[in-house]
Amino acid sequence: MKKVIYLLIILPMAVLAQKPLKPNLGKALNSWKGGKLQEAKEMIDVCATDPKLSLDAKTWYYRGLIYASLDTTSNQAFKSLASNSFDVAMEAFSKAEDMNKNSRSDLFYTDEMGFPVPRTQSMAILTGYYLNAGASAYQDDDYPTALVEFGKVQRIEPNDTTAFFYAGFVAQADEQYDLAVQNINQYIKLGGRSKDAYTILISIYGGEKEDKVKALELTREAKKKFPDEKNFALMEIGYLIDLDKTEEAKSGLEAAVKSDPTNKTLHFYLGYVNSKLDNFDAAKKNFEDAMKIDPTYFDAQYYLAQLYLIEADKIKREMNNLGISKADQEKKKQLDNELVARYKSALPYWEKAEQLNPSDADVLDKLSIIYYYLGEDKKAERINKRLKELGID
């Protein structure tokens, strides 16, 4: 019984022995510089509630530094001292800057060597840390973390373009297309000049957002800002074609070919546009010109070969629509001879296409049809065997 009474007397005395911390801004800073983050946090929290120190801009600046360290430390025990350390740090920095806005000198602390470290330098160090953390997370394919880290940079330096570009790039990779557009638009608004920013926007609108009108608008905007970048001119032509503005595309391509006659891609696109406009002879010449520049240019060879089957396909459709009358049968024989001639004319172009790309399914399929119709059974058998090897029935 006496022991119980003794404990009841001692415990209140032990509680009374725990004195509250006395606010000391110097101790908070020294604890922080010494890596004692728990002590630094406890002291700066007390200073922030002190009637006098709470009116001092240094209190809030130091609080920002201490809480920023809690957010960036790799020590989980320290990190767990606050669940919202970054937000607290940013609020403290903002308050310190507001309190100091009429001062002629920047806020600072002195390092171990006695040199002043101004607020602007501290912010630059933090910015660098979060940028590196975001880049590291991106390299590890941890896109959500990368976006969080780049978002922190945006809050520290809202007028810095770098973090907005990186965030847009990562958001696109993470298939968060609205977020990507938001970040890239802000990057451009802030004066960002990378042509890759426009490439990202054009890709998103022309692809996932399925808004080729907007993609064309952005492409033209990019073309004006980067007149030496030829890819934007080609993109513009591509979207004009997609939007069935072939006459406009043709005009632009003809001018482009004149200024850059050795560009095989321009000749190819002009051939494509002419084929869309049913200017087949002109299209053949365009594709042949592209092949002269690059004899291994498969796309040009493929589309050139396609042109030689246009008339053949018309003949086949006409044959299929014939009846069983004597006149129809006579007509069918005549058309059959014409079809054989068309296939013989087209064959070298398709064989050349196969040489350039032996695994293209459509090329092999067309060759199979042509060989079969011309009675080239062994060649047709070779093609069919190749199709089976590719897993194509």
Number of strands: 2
Separation of the first and last Cα atoms: 95 Å
Report strand order across the widest sheet.
Answer: 1-2
What fraction of the residues are assigned to beta strands by DSSP?
A: under 5%
Overall morphology: elongated
Tally of DSSP helical segments: 20
Largest sheet: 2 strands, antiparallel
Q: What's the alpha carbon Rg, rounded to whole Å?
A: 36 Å
Order of helices and strands: HHHHHHEEHHHHHHHHHHHHHH
Question: What is the average of the pLDDT values?
Answer: 90
- Helical fraction equals over 70%
Low-confidence runs of at least 5 consecutive residues: 1-16
Classification by helices and strands: mainly alpha
Structure in words:
Among the domains are: 193-243, no CATH class; 305-389, no CATH class. Helix content is 75%, strand content 2%. The chain contains 20 helices and 2 strands. The protein has helices at 2-16, 25-33, 37-49, 57-72, 76-79, 85-99, 119-139, 143-156, 161-173, 177-189, 195-206, 212-225, 230-242, 246-259, 264-276, 280-293, 298-320, 326-356, 361-374, 377-389, and strands spanning 108-110, 116-118. Strands 1-2 form a two-stranded antiparallel ribbon. Strand 1 (108-110) and strand 2 form a beta hairpin. Helix 3 (37-49) runs antiparallel to helix 4, helix 4 (57-72) packs parallel to helix 7 (119-139) and helix 18 (326-356) packs across helix 19. It is elongated and about 115 Å long. Residues 1-16 have low confidence and may be disordered.
